[in-house]
Amino acid sequence: MISIQFFNDIAFASELQQRAKIQIGSLPNSPPGSEDDTEAKIKLGNKLFRDINLSANQIQACVTCHPIDGRSAGMDRQTTPRGTFGQQGKRNTPTIFNVGFNSVLFWDGRRNSLYDQAIDPFINPLEMSLSSESELIQKIQNDPSYSHYFVSAYPENPNINIHNVRLSLSAFERSLVSKSKFDDFVMGNLLIFNRQELEGLNIFLEVGCTNCHSGYLLGGNNLSKLQSAILYNPNDFGRFEVTDDSNDRYLFKIPSLRNVTLTQPYFHDGSVTSLKETIERMNEYNLNRRLASSEMDLLIVFLKTLSDKTKSN
């Protein structure tokens, strides 16, 4: 005999599913722009993404800071990354998964498309340290294994040029889409969440987390000021360093919460390793009410449902 509790749980799940569908939504199968991404372009982008010879001393590739194989969730889990010559990076590495859905890229929002962003890590002195785009192209041209990839990806114009490199890296990065248990729930599987996950989602919606972590990415496409001594490194001025506009001081990208339980440490400076402490800090800063410790625990149970089902880091 089916219990009354079961019917109550289903009713609770159904109501939450409708709210989550409206307030958050599910992740689309593919990002904008992917309609022009061919398998050949993605394969070329994957090769470029993994090629250590495209760094200044041939020891680092994009995949070094954004590991994606096996159970890895697309970031190195370091406070800040190390560059080709051991340089200390300035900001925490975000996950590469779902980056194709982002319209704000980098913590300071200095890029708004994968195409514009694609070459930056290669010529950043704190990352792969090449001197210029020309040096990058020269390295690719000097490797005969690339010729076949460019012919396959761009049969009408197989030139090894910066435009085709940008297109290919963007195509590959758009292919890195992670689907979660949460998406299954929003799409109608009411039985996939247990009671704690439902209660965690209810708290997430009720206390206003979606005011900042909005949309189906739960963040990732807006910036916000962190004007609190407990939340930022006062020596990092955020978007101000890009625009020189005093209004942009301490303005940083709001990160997506997808895969958040797999991608510690947190904040732009990687200063917090505990997700619960991160929630505590944000509760002090920008939520509707003070959360009890038990409510934070339930929030974390819910946040785990946002992880890619194939990843554990």
TrEMBL record:
GO molecular function: peroxidase activity
Top-level lineage group: Bacteria
SUPFAM superfamilies: Cytochrome c
Keyword Protein transport: no
Compartments reported by the entry: Periplasm
Domain annotation Cytochrome c: ranges: 195-307
Residue stretches spanning the membrane: none
Keywords: Heme, Iron, Metal-binding, Oxidoreductase, Periplasm, Peroxidase, Signal
Protein name, entry field: Cytochrome-c peroxidase
Biological classification of the source: Bacteria, Pseudomonadati, Spirochaetota, Spirochaetia, Leptospirales
